[in-house]
């Protein structure tokens, strides 16, 4: 267990992050998952959801949110509040927006936004990348962690690798079409985001690239 600056956060949150970075072995978070209503029937895993919630708690008001107003004037929100451990006051993590995209605009004119953030984890010298949506429709959770990279790999290369892997996964599993528009610029601009997408949906050598994608996810 780490004993450096990361202990400024509650031990349970430290354990969650450490378990995620170590592949989740030899940890039992059943009580935590139950108490914090971390869903088990998702395609992304409870640990990745729990870690994303810890990291994104400080910026939750800026995450994708679906809202509607009833005839009586009541505001309905799709995204629930991300609650953090009551002792989580000494250290605030700093998620940085990579970019925000809109997968498509449906016939009812509803958008399907998704944002990606990268967070440096002090003490571990690693980055964790997360994906956030305005609800649980697609993956069973509004937020989850995509993976991690080291400071040696670098912030931008880590973000690119993990976000592209996530897009390729959706392309291979669901034949997901390329996202429609860039909603927010962050670490990358519109041209860079488009270039990342082109490498996934329109690789230079379609036949060879398709074979590599199929082989990877076979």
Number of domains: 1
Biggest beta sheet summary: 5 strands, antiparallel
Count of DSSP-assigned helices:
6
Percent of residues in helices comes to 25-40%
Q: Based on DSSP secondary structure assignment, what is the total number of beta strands?
A: 7
Termini Cα gap? 35 Å
| General shape | globular
Polypeptide structure, described:
The chain has 218 residues and is an alpha+beta fold. The protein has one domain (5-64, 76-217). It has six helices and seven strands, in the order αααββββββαβαα. It has helices spanning 11-21, 30-35, 46-56, 155-174, 190-201, 206-217; strands at residues 67-69, 75-77, 96-105, 111-121, 126-133, 143-150, 181-185. Strands 6-5-4-3-7 form a five-stranded antiparallel β-sheet, sandwiched between helices. The chain has a two-stranded antiparallel ribbon with strand order 1-2. A hairpin with a 5-residue loop joins strand 3 (96-105) and strand 4. The protein is globular.
What features would you highlight for this structure?
218 residues; alpha+beta; two-stranded antiparallel ribbon; 6 helices; 33% helix; disordered N terminus
